[in-house]
Amino acid sequence: MNGKRIIFGVTGSIAACKTVFLVRALIKEGAEVQVVMTPFAKEFITPLTLATLSRKPVISEFFSNRDGMWNSHVDLGLWADAMLIAPATASTIGKMANGIADNMLITTYLSCKAPVFIAPAMDLDMFAHQATQQNLDKLRSFGNTIIEPETGELASGLEGKGRMSEPTDIVNILRQFFSINGILCGKKVLITAGPTYEKIDPVRFIGNYSSGKMGFALAEAFAKRGADVTMITGPVSLKTQNTRIKRIDVESADEMYEAAVKHFPKSNYAVLCAAVADYKPENKIAEKIKRENNVAMTIRLVNNRDIAAKLGEMKQPDQILAGFALETKDDIANAKEKLKRKNLDLIVLNSLAEKGTGFGVDTNKVMLIDKHGNKVAVPLKSKTEISDDIVDYLINMKIIWV
Ligand code: PMT
């Protein structure tokens, strides 16, 4: 963490007493720490204590009372390599999730370009409340990392989940974040994941069984090697943890197409794992279709645009483009045809024929077929392990060919 600049946000919780250890540990690691406190945080720990430990005046107000200087949240947001908010109360979490910028900490958060780590601390019922959980989900969907609280004795005397994570664990998470210096550091990766939903009417859609597990595992595999990943995902219930993954949620193939075409030119690698619907209803019906007894109904479908084929056309010589093939018969021949027609460098063939492969499950069994005709069969493994194999293969392809 040597030389890393950390904004350390402190809010009004009894867990603020643990910030003494946190600030000391971060300074010991060589980080430069700027403490920003909410007004309520000062009821639990004095600014003097944190200013002394961080070796910098604490910021809490928009203006400094002493010299009338304006504390610029924008400059602070741009200065940081990371922002940590510990402890984060339910109130601050709610304000962050909804952009209620009524104190210096929230304005700094909204201006911050660096990854943000949030360590909630509150009573068990407050933590379990739907409002808090929805706000945390919202923050996760913005790409923030939530450092889960622990279960144990709480300040109220009750037992449950809500205790702020221990300072040593929080420091470890930051240490891990800063120590990523993998082979793909500085590289940009585009992933598509999950299914697409094609609307029939306001309550019905055409979709498929993709859970997003394969695509999310790939995004994690790239991110843990230091790449900056943009993942465009259809509707799934999975969460992203790694702050190097920027997630774009879409619903339809058209939305996925637009997002992929926009982000592909900046990407060094793209892996298209989404199960994109090949067809969509020709007409979207504004009202819910009513049932009519004994009357058959026909929905006319038209082709969706092919994202992989479009990116294959756009591909530059220094870009690597990989796709997946999901086949039920003549799998190798069909996969090779797709590899060629879509101008891919690699196709990952998986089949629905075998147990433990394809949709929904945590494992997969694939064959990697590259544009030179090389084939590598990867046995049944977890989607995490398969993703590591795919990423290694792509890295080697780039070293050898590009
Ligand atoms: O999400 P999981 O539950 O973990 O399941 C993983 C998976 C089975 C969905 C995944 O491993 C997989 O096989 N994804 C691709 C499924 C698919 O749509 O295959 P395809 O053979 O129809 O398409 C070939 C390639 O073209 C794919 O890279 C696909 O993303 C792409 N494509 C297809 C149609 C389209 N309109 N645009 C595309 O980009």
Short descriptors:
402 residues; alpha/beta; Rossmann fold; five-stranded parallel beta sheet; 14 helices; 19 strands; 34% helix; 25% strand; globular; binds ligand PMT
What share of the residues does DSSP label as strand, in percent?
Answer: 15-25%
CATH 2nd-level architecture of the largest domain: 3-Layer(aba) Sandwich
SSE-based structural type = alpha/beta
Domain unit count: 2
SSE blueprint:
Elements: E1 5-10, H1 19-28, E2 32-37, H2 41-44, H3 47-54, H4 73-79, E3 82-88, H5 90-98, H6 104-111, E4 116-120, H7 124-128, H8 130-141, E5 145-146, E6 150-153, E7 159-163, H9 167-179, E8 188-193, E9 198-201, E10 204-206, H10 213-224, E11 228-233, E12 245-249, H11 253-263, E13 269-272, E14 279-281, E15 301-303, H12 307-314, E16 320-327, H13 331-341, E17 346-351, E18 363-370, E19 375-382, H14 383-401
Parallel strand pairs: 1-2, 1-3, 3-4, 4-5, 8-11, 8-13, 11-12, 13-16, 16-17
Antiparallel strand pairs: 6-7, 9-10, 14-15, 17-18, 18-19
Helix pairs in contact: 1-3, 1-9, 4-6, 5-8, 10-14
The structure holds ligand PMT.
Structural summary, described in words:
By secondary structure, this protein is of the alpha/beta class. It has two domains: 5-180, Rossmann fold (3-Layer(aba) Sandwich), CATH 3.40.50; 188-401, Rossmann fold (3-Layer(aba) Sandwich). The protein contains 14 helices and 19 strands. The strands form five sheets. The chain has an eight-stranded mixed sheet, with helices on both faces. Strands 2-1-3-4-5 form a five-stranded parallel sheet, sandwiched between helices. Strands 6-7 form a two-stranded antiparallel ribbon. A hairpin with a 4-residue loop joins β18 and β19 (375-382). The longest helix is centred in the C-terminal third of the chain and has 19 residues, at 383-401. 41% of the residues are buried. The mean pLDDT is 92. It binds ligand PMT.
